[in-house]
Design brief:
single chain, alpha/beta, Metallo-beta-lactamase, Chain A, six-stranded mixed sheet, 6 helices, 25% helix, globular, binds zinc ion, sulfur dioxygenase activity, Metallo-B-lactamas
């Protein structure tokens, strides 16, 4: 699928926990970024090979093992550098934080700091699309009862994603919904967590 300004996003099913891994690249320059290799390292590497792209970064949305699994295999095979928030992977080569950008060709990808499910969670904003990790799934939201979770922070991160234009594509970290990709408009309509009008009703629904 090609986003508005031309970055390609390849969604890769990755293992029995229904993770999604992503290969994002600029078709003009061939510069590429992998998100959460997860249990799909081999499939991800096959996509890199087939599309003849130059993998520059492996980026983790957060520090849970089902997303980090596969990092080493992909890094070793490609020479890419690792990028993550310091609270996710303290020893990453590139430490991410709110407002940073990662560039593929001429296109900037904006890093959004979105804690709540995990204290070191980031989402990616590329033109016309969001990579939402374990903050937002199609019609669902990430867990907020894990070590390091903060339910109120998750609510605020979700509200922030809800504020993007309706046509923005949503690429989630797991295939937990009725379809693998949606839009912010679809989530505003069909996601009961995004429909919560205040923090109290969100907490009741998420934790109750
Ligand atoms: Zn997670």
């Amino acid at each position: 699928m090609v986003t508005k300004t031309g970055l390609e996003v390849v969604q890769i099913p990755a293992g029995k926990m229904k993770n999604f891994s992503y290969l994002i690249y600029c078709p003009n320059s061939g510069e590429a970024l992998a998100v959460d290799p997860s249990f799909g390292a081999k499939a991800l590497l096959a996509e890199v090979e087939e599309r003849k792209v130059n993998l520059q970064l492996v980026l983790n949305t957060h520090g849970h093992n089902d997303h980090l699994a596969g990092n080493e295999e992909v890094l070793a095979a490609t020479g890419a550098r690792l990028a993550a928030h310091p609270l996710a992977v303290a020893e990453a080569d590139l430490l991410l934080d709110e407002g940073m950008t990662v560039t593929l060709g001429d296109t900037a990808i904006e890093i959004l700091f979105t804690p709540g499910h995990h204290p070191g969670h980031v989402c990616l904003h590329l033109p016309g699309a969001l990579i939402t990790g374990d903050v937002l799934f199609v019609t669902r939201v990430g867990r907020a009862d894990l070590a390091g979770s903060d339910p109120a922070a998750l609510y605020h991160s979700l509200r922030r994603l809800a504020g993007f234009p309706g046509e923005t594509l949503v690429y989630p970290g797991h295939d937990y919904g009725p379809k693998p990709v949606s839009t912010i408009a679809y989530e505003r309509q069909h996601n009961p967590f995004m429909r919560c009008e205040d923090l109290e009703s969100f907490l009741r629904l998420r934790m109750g």
